[in-house]
Amino acid sequence: MQAPTSSAIEARRSGSRVVAAGIAAIVLLLAGAAVLLFLTLPDANAFNARVERLFVENAAMTGQNEVKLLEILAQSGTAFADTLASYRMVIFVLLVFSAAMLVAALVFLLMLTGMNRQMAQIERSGIQVNSLIISREEKTVYMNTIGLKLTDAAIETLAVLAEARMDDDILTGAEIEGVISGRASADCEEAAGATRIKRLRDALGNQLVSELLVKNIARRGYVLAIDKDVIRMV
After folding, report:
1. What whole-number distance in Å separates Cα of residue 134 and Cα of residue 116?
2. What are the residue ranges of helices labelled H in the chain?
3. Rounded to an integer, what is the distance from CA 209 to the centroid of its chain?
4. Are strands 214-217 and 231-233 parallel, antiparallel or unpaired?
5. DSSP letters for 30-95
6. Is-above-0.70 flag for pTM?
7. Which residues make Cβ contacts (< 8 Å) with residue 158, sequence separation at least 6?
8. Considering the domain 132-233, what is its CATH architecture?
9. In this prediction, what percent of the chain has a pLDDT beyond 90?
């Protein structure tokens, strides 16, 4: 048991390293893009510096019109500086939002990948049932810690499959119909038992769970794919 445990721990550590590396790469990439963008943006005070230079170089311009023009240029420079500052803030917010979205997308992608691996593992190994209690009186099956209400037909079908599993038997559809109806299996149709199995699976609800719990072995019949020692009939 030591080797599987060690490999599982190593797999989790490897996955954590991949997540950390991916998030770090995203943050560094966006940080580099932000630095490059801010460095290439023009200086907010560049326009004001040019206007100030005009004031200095044209000190002799004392006419009312000339002074008015210089004032307009100065106001324009201030407006340009404020606009550029607001653009910088918008760009910064967008970059932060982009980083958050990319990190979230990476985390969700890794979560989906992990869930797909778990589902594939379940499909390969079957469903893990630690306790299966069938109560005919309550018309309820307790699977692990979950109680499911079933119809009379569904609970009878499940009970027949459970009894067969405890005896290490595999029942065909005709045999299932025969046990429930009290007739000889030779007098019953395979389709009738298959219909009972389908209704049982429908009653159990989750398609994946029902398909893995009630397995159909080709040319042999139906069986509960669980350990017989966990089954109890009350």
Report:
1. 31
2. 2-40, 46-57, 64-125, 152-166, 173-181, 190-204, 207-213
3. 18
4. unpaired
5. HHHHHHHHHHHSPPTTHHHHHHHHHHHHTTT--SHHHHHHHHHHHHHHHHHHHHHHHHHHHHHHHH
6. no
7. 134, 141, 150, 200
8. Orthogonal Bundle (1.10)
9. 15
Of residues 74, 76, 91, the one with CA closest to residue 39:
91
Q: Residue ranges per domain, the chain?
A: 2-125, 132-233
DSSP code, position 171: B
Pairing of strands 140-143, 132-135: antiparallel
Spatial separation of the C-alpha atoms in residues 172 and 219, rounded to whole Å:
9
- Identity of the residue numbered 36: L
pLDDT at residue 227, as a whole number: 84
On average, the pLDDT of the chain sits at 77
Q: Directed axis angle between helix 152-166 and helix 173-181, to 10°?
A: 110
DSSP 136: T
